[in-house]
Write a structure and sequence with these properties.
This protein has 127 residues and is mainly α. It is built from 4 helices and no strands. It folds into 2 domains: 75 residues; 44 residues. 78% of the residues lie in helices and 0% in strands. α1 packs antiparallel against α2. The longest helix is centred in the C-terminal third of the chain and has 38 residues. It is elongated, with a radius of gyration of 29 Å. Belongs to the SecE/SEC61-gamma family. InterPro entries: SecE_bac, SecE_sf, Translocase_SecE/Sec61-g. Keywords: Cell membrane, Membrane, Protein transport, Translocation, Transmembrane, Transmembrane helix, Transport.
């Protein structure tokens, strides 16, 4: 049995990029609240620029590249999915609804039967 070993190497520069992106994000939020007197345009502009810079810095880090590769692979796998036709989707949805109604009736009848047996027959509380 072959085992594959995954080796993660985080360099100092990569850690600095991640810390920088977190610092940019925090700075953007702080600036957003500090600029509350300057107007909404200044607040949102600073926040959006800070978030864009933080995302850009994260994407160039090793973790960011791995995340982008993961999303790219996930999108590629999604394209391989064979989606059901409209008719098949409607049929399966109808089956689910019918099953839910049948189960609801079954559970209601079971509940009422147990209630009748317990309260009327065994305890005799309802006369």
């Amino acid at each position: 049995m072959a085992t594959s070993e995954v080796q993660t190497v985080n360099t100092g520069a990569d850690k600095a990029k991640l810390a920088g992106s977190v610092a940019l994000l925090l700075a953007g939020f702080v600036a957003f609240y500090l600029l509350s007197g300057k107007g909404a345009l200044a607040q949102w502009g600073v926040l959006l620029v800070a978030v864009a810079a933080a995302v850009g810095m994260f994407v160039v880090s090793e973790s960011g590249r791995q995340l982008v590769a993961f999303f790219r692979d996930a999108w590629r796998e999604t394209k391989k999915v064979v989606w059901p036709a409209r008719k098949e989707t409607i049929q399966m949805t109808a089956y689910v609804f019918v099953f839910v109604v049948v189960m609801a009736l079954f559970l209601w009848l079971t509940d009422k039967t147990v209630e009748w047996a317990f309260y009327d027959l065994i305890l005799g509380w309802r006369k």
